[in-house]
Specification:
- 2 copies of one chain form a homodimer.
- The first copy, chain A, has 452 residues and is mainly alpha-helical.
- A 3-stranded mixed sheet of chain A has the order 1-2-3.
- In chain A, helix 14 packs across helix 15.
- Chain A starts with 8 loop residues before the first helix and ends with a helix.
- At the A-B interface, helix 3, helix 12, helix 13, helix 14 and helix 15 of A face helix 3, helix 12, helix 13, helix 14 and helix 15 of B.
Chain lengths: 452, 452
């Protein structure tokens, strides 16, 4: 019997790349389960990934590119010739294309745009010029709009010939514009069914809500929340000219990307993105930039301990409790940060509610501070049977818990009010203060107790 | 001149509630900007919120309920009479209704269901019986399906009479079922336009992809990723009976809710939800349940310090560096956790890739460990001019950074492999080990240095 050797999918792809077998490669990728494909792609080097894309038909390559984070997609495009890159970018929906192109250097971008169809390139330039998280940055330029005097029969003929480029659901409402390109309303496809081909769009015209090209992600989210039915919204400039349509999908994706980024930032991944496929130098550099700020904050906080060396020497057992008090206060404070971040996201609180949030946290801080303080005091008693030690560490933890939730609950609101990203700065600001306070409380209480 | 007093929106709502002015209340809420409404609602007590809902027309009340987190929506319903609650629930889309009802106690649920239209109640019972994050739990039962022999004219007549209950975009494809309720395919609305009213659906039948009622959130996400165009998917049982449709919207909302929950869990909010409108007892209890586990882990970690009291007494300056080393290692480890969580979410890594991830982290750990170790050693030198102290704390931090990124990078994969929620457990597991290692390395290096 032959031994069965299970070849890993990425090894097989690599073989096919070396053998330069485009057809076999397409067939093989088709045979893989959908969730194996991303994993396989990321096992290849960026060079191999680029080579893979050139082997695939541009439309398939575009589909693959759509599945990887934008910054990484840009890295791969960078490795292709401008012409190859252009042919793939042209197959992406215009909103996705703009997102990927926006990640490129100006020079690489210009080279690729030069190789694209001039109309597509102009559209892409236009889309990239808007902020990425605005309606302009998220909209697509594939849509159909007609003058109100167009005959239904002509609309249907055009729709039938265009469906390949335009998502089907964007055709459920046909937009009607004035000769100068201003949006006048829309006609439901269902109203047009069975209409006489010679009647005109005007006859079925209904008002349609729209968004402004400058609207931000939160405003777009509100729009789609309020317009349950809408799969896309027309995007207008301030003089009501129709510039494009923004899809619910694009808004959803931008929101979930932002949530991912915020989660990464909170844990110290600056820029909100890192994949292990990035070069080691980049990965460790980005992480280090945040760590080096943090170590300085840590040294500042620990310097409080340095001021109390005599107290510590007189009661060395305190050294055991210093990290416990500071860590636990950090945990309590982080819980409060998490709740404030969520309430900010849901729109339940705003920066001006800081005093109200603080009052709400005080209660939790008092209850949990007393509970944790008693627990720690008991642990200290079991270990050393020293009542003074128990009281010092218990009281310090109780008080520092109140301080920690007060700061944790309010700091995201304060930072937001100061236009500083609360996802990035809340954590380090909180732990620096709670560490300092924790060390100070334990050691100053202890020095007072020793002096009695 | 009269003084201008700016009344806060919730104060005005409260007045109108007291004055029992339903019409004025509806008008006033209509006049508020959309993002003021949620904030206003959350300023009211749960009783006032319930009273507000009874004053509003059920459809408006349902719209409001749709905007608050499900657990909170259930709390409000709980405060209403079963009859009032039922009339509001009936106005929610069936997928949303099931989510809210699923949060209620069995008794309250049964009471409300009894007051509902029996068909709606049966549907709700059915939907609640599926896991919340499966196609069954996320689907809605408002859809239209016809036998293939139905005449186009009849389909159009039915569609025209039904649009109030069924989102417009669900009508872009008309589903065709067999007499036994099995899904046979679908007909595009655009293909039906201009068809002779006497032709039958069968003539335009096209295949349609579907999901299984047992499919999980990740599988649904994959489906919609692969079906760019789809705004909804038919949900079938294993014998291909059509049970409902799941909307892209519902899947997206479930995903973003899960991301929110994970972010909350990572910061110690068990259950993944807390709003400050909850009773103090509930809030502090939930937070405390996590904190009390954490304080035990902290005490275990700090007990390492207790074993080295003599070393500490001989070199009290070490006490300053213990929290720095443990905190910084925690930070480095958390960065690695964040990257692993992201790669797990994107499907780039799986539990079996643990060795590969570890190799990728070692490099970052070595570079950043040496950099941070040198920084801390320098700080120690500037403070004490003691070369042994510098070497001890620098080497301990360098080595502990390598340990921290190794654990941080691999622990989410290991936990996932063991079917433990990595969002919840990665943080505490990581910091407990890095704290213990940090304390041990500093103190054992120091005791070795002192013994020389």
């Amino acid at each position: 019997m032959e031994p069965i050797v299970a070849t890993k999918p990425w090894e097989r792809v690599r073989e096919l790349l070396v053998e330069a077998e485009p057809h076999a490669l397409v067939d093989y990728l088709d045979s893989l389960p959908a969730d194996d494909i991303v994993r396989t792609v990321f096992r290849l080097t960026v060079d191999e990934q680029a080579r893979l894309l050139t082997f695939l038909p541009p439309r398939t390559a575009a589909g693959l590119l759509d599945d990887v984070p934008e910054a990484h997609a840009a890295d791969i495009l960078d490795d292709l010739s401008a012409k190859e890159a252009a042919s793939i970018v042209e197959e992406l929906d215009s909103d996705m294309a703009a997102d990927v192109l926006a990640e490129l250097d100006a020079d690489d971008l210009e080279e690729i745009l030069r190789q694209m169809d001039p109309t597509d390139a102009d559209e892409a330039r236009q889309l990239i010029s808007y902020p990425a998280d605005s309606a302009g940055g998220l909209m697509m330029t594939e849509y159909l709009a007609f003058s109100g005097s167009t005959k239904i029969g002509d609309v249907v003929a055009t729709v039938a010939s265009q469906t390949a480029d335009i998502p089907l659901y964007l055709l459920q409402q046909i937009m009607v514009i004035s000769p100068l390109g201003r949006l006048r309303g829309a006609v439901n496809l269902s109203d047009m069914a069975f209409a006489e081909p010679n009647t005109r769009l005007n006859q079925f015209l209904q008002p349609i809500d729209s968004v402004l090209v400058t609207n931000r992600l939160e405003e777009l989210e509100d729009f789609f929340d309020e317009h349950d039915e809408a799969t896309a919204a027309p995007v207008l400039d301030e003089r009501k000219h129709l510039l494009g349509v923004v899809r619910r999908r694009a808004v959803f994706e931008a929101i979930s990307e932002k949530m991912d980024e915020d989660a990464m930032k909170r844990q110290g991944i600056i820029g909100g993105d890192e994949l292990r496929s990035l070069p080691l130098r980049v990965r460790s550099g980005r992480r280090l930039s945040w760590l080096s700020v943090n170590i300085l904050l840590n040294i500042v906080a620990a310097s409080v301990i340095a001021m109390y060396q005599e107290t510590l020497a007189a009661a060395i057992a305190l050294a055991v409790f210093l990290p416990i008090v500071s860590d636990m206060s950090g945990c309590s404070g982080n819980q409060a940060v998490a709740v404030s971040m969520r309430e900010l996201t849901l729109g339940i609180v705003r920066p001006e509610d800081v005093f109200r949030v603080w009052r709400k946290e005080i209660g939790v801080g008092l209850i949990n501070g007393v509970a944790l303080g008693l627990l720690l005091a008991t642990a200290a008693w079991l270990w050393q049977q020293d009542i003074r030690l128990s009281i010092v560490v218990g009281a310090a933890l109780a008080l520092n818990t109140v301080i920690a939730v007060s700061i944790g609950g309010t700091i995201p609101l304060l930072l937001k009010g100061l236009k500083i990203d609360p996802a990035l700065a809340s954590g380090p600001a909180l732990t620096t203060v709670t560490d300092m306070c924790g060390f100070f409380l334990v050691l100053s209480f202890a020095s007072f107790a020793l002096s009695m």
